[in-house]
Amino acid sequence: VPGKRHLDEDDASVSWRKRKKHFFILSNSGKPIYSRYGDEHKLAGFSATLQAIISFVENGGDRVKLVRAGKHQVIFLVKGPIYLVCISCTEEPYESLRGQLELVYGQMIVILTKSVNRCFEKNSKFDMTPLLGGTDGVFSSLIHSFSWNPATFLHAYTCLPLAYATRQAAGAILQDVADSGVLFAILMCKHKVISLVGAQKASLHPDDMLLLSNFVMSSESFRTSESFSPICLPRYNPMAFLYAYVHYLDVDTYLMLLTTSSDAFFHLKDCRIRIEMVLLKSNVLSEVQRSMLDGGMHVEDLPADPSPRSGTSSPHLGQPRFSTDSPEGFREAFVGIGGPAGLWHFIYRSIYLDQYVSSEFSSPINSSRQQKRLYRAYQKLYASMHDKSIGPHKTQFRRDENYVLLCWVTQDFELYAAFDPLAHKALAIKTCNRVCQWVKDVENEIFLLGASPFSW
Hints:
- There is one protein chain.
- With 456 residues, the protein is an alpha+beta fold.
- It has helices at 14-18, 44-59, 94-112, 117-122, 136-145, 151-154, 164-178, 206-217, 220-224, 265-281, 284-294, 368-385, 425-441, 443-446, and strands at 21-27, 32-35, 66-69, 72-79, 82-88, 184-189, 192-198, 227-231, 242-248, 253-259, 343-350, 355-358, 395-399, 404-409, 413-419.
């Protein structure tokens, strides 16, 4: 994702006004700090208008959260002296867009820490843009991820599928390093976790992992050489910097070692050399490359309906609420282009582990536009399932011209599944039970087990 796009645009440009989703950061004095599209300095008048709306409502003893104007929603988020605004006509739920503003604010805190507020206390007209110089690509990458990365609304992370022994080998050497004074040791491949280890009682929120990995992947400087950089983890401690040693082991795989010490570079460099040696000797890096080529779970590979296992007491969707007895004419005969019973895609989130697994996209959801549409459908489903004013709900079944969507929430997991719009309800329910059993059967390979200390 490139950095700032369409720099020539401003609020007078027709093209700027036609953009479907804008993000703005401004100060409480109306100074523009960041804009997704156009040059911030050319948008000074527009930023002042947004600031005036917020101030006007606050002066009346209230707080503005949402303004609807035709097809557009204007969402406001006030964080002390920092104002964040999203203007969208994408029909995403308010909760989702507000959550995205929280993440944009979190990304700013990763770079600056919350102590930047003190600068505004000393000088209300403080200009923050120089402090964020060169980070346009970081924000652009994060905003782009709102269209494809389920972690942005699930608040969970995903792991690269690996054999249990391979992940254990990576975890063992990271644990050795954590015992030598490293706060967090994280090994990742793109946005997927290979292994992570934390010092005793140190807890890492999935949102912090999302923002940290986005910061590393969207900053070119981390790719070209080993780096030692101050970073902040908003959920861990928003007021203080940690120090991150970052090194790419190959084009997609990188190691992050986090410490509280500003002079630990050489110690962390030695740790990295030890880690890299062990990863090469135990073939972890070659296994990572193989996993990248093979991909994850494919709906076409969903195992046949397993016979009842003795001693298993896992819940079944549709019992007793729905009957899963399929009519004779539909018995396993309905196989769509994807998996059994027209299954096209699924996301399974383990509540205990704060991890999720998402099946690979396959036909007919093989274009980026179709994938984005399904992502937005999941987003709406998630928001409605967790709507506190009318819920929470346990199951939901939706059918429209694009999909059958089925969601199932228990105390242990959440399952979101998309089927062919002509899929039979009873078979879809039966297939969801099979997906849950499949995930349970391969959990050693798709999840980082024993990671409960990282729950928040």
